[in-house]
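B., you asked whether I could sanity-check this one before it goes into the benchmark set. Here's the sequence:
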Amino acid sequence: MNITIKRIYDPAAKQDGARVLVDRLWPRGISKDRARLAAWAKEAAPSNGLRAWFHENPGKRRAEFQKKYRAELRAHAKELKKIFAALGPSITFVTAVKDIEHSHAPVLRDFVKGL
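And here's what the prediction gave me:
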């Protein structure tokens, strides 16, 4: 499975494959037409509590956040495997976060690739 990550504010491209929003909240200023999503995987995003806890101090909490987020993902592994397997071999996770590399998206990508 090929999974890439990009911001939802970047234009959709043919090579994106199935575009999946991996945020719990809908991004501001994006219409459903512009998003061009195959799915919105809210259940793949960090829980509200974990997300809020992480944003209080992301620099110091990154490693612990990743550990806790992986635990949340393991609890839903069967459901996530079904969702992402049904989308095909090429998937693009889209997110509204500005700093993609230090967000939940790479953790999710690595987890899904290991399913």
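One thing to flag: The chain has a mean pLDDT of 95. Otherwise nothing jumped out at me.
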